[in-house]
Design brief:
194 residues; mainly beta; two-stranded antiparallel sheet
């Protein structure tokens, strides 16, 4: 997404984003691209642990940039950061939560019914009706909040329904320990609206 369209980024909106495809791509050893000194646009991919020791430059040390080879794919994400950050040109990064599809095998796993019943501590059920009338079962994973650059947002897809957004806000407060208890033991802090 270009900077001129950042005004379209809003909390609770669902976008397709270019996201890391497989967590196994981040397990060590990693895949590094090693440039050919004669032609930096060519080189070889090698699998190794990597040397992340800082490089001495004069009297100080600096982190050494590394070029990794990882898989990415389009994934739907819901925007969870506030609209001041989402739409401001000085802030390049936003917070999102990924949306995952529930596969038929997932329906046999313990916890599946908790997702459907809105009783899961980290997952929010967000079904989507497809043009053919079938329902695509999906969930937002609040345990995998991630900061991404606005430039990897590809396309706005939908807006989260109000009740789903309310549940998302509740789980964010609970899982990030943002709530405070009042004298009566009830939650006294409520998330600020965007």
């Amino acid at each position: 997404m270009s900077k001129s369209n950042w005004h379209e980024i809003e909390r609770g909106h669902v976008f397709e984003a270019a996201m890391l495809y497989s967590p196994s791509d981040t397990n060590r050893p990693l895949y590094f691209f090693e440039e050919d000194p004669a032609d930096p646009s060519t080189g070889v991919v090698v699998r190794r642990v990597g040397d992340f020791a800082p490089k001495k430059i004069g009297r100080t040390y600096a982190a050494r940039p590394q070029r990794l080879v990882i898989g990415i794919k389009p994934r739907r994400v819901v925007i969870v950061s506030n609209n001041k950050i989402n739409q401001h040109h000085d802030f390049e990064y936003i917070m999102v939560a990924p949306i995952f599809t529930i596969k038929p095998d997932d329906e046999k796993k313990p916890g599946y019914q908790k997702i459907i019943d809105d009783d899961h501590p980290y997952f929010i059920y967000v079904p989507r009706t497809l043009p053919d009338g079938k329902v695509l079962k999906r969930y937002i994973d609040v345990s995998q909040l991630i900061s991404i650059h606005k430039g990897i947002l590809l396309e706005k897809k939908e807006v989260l329904e109000t009740d789903r957004m309310g549940l998302l806000e509740d789980l964010l407060i609970e899982n990030l320990d943002l709530g405070a208890e009042g004298e009566d033991g009830q939650q006294a802090f409520v998330a600020a609206k965007s």
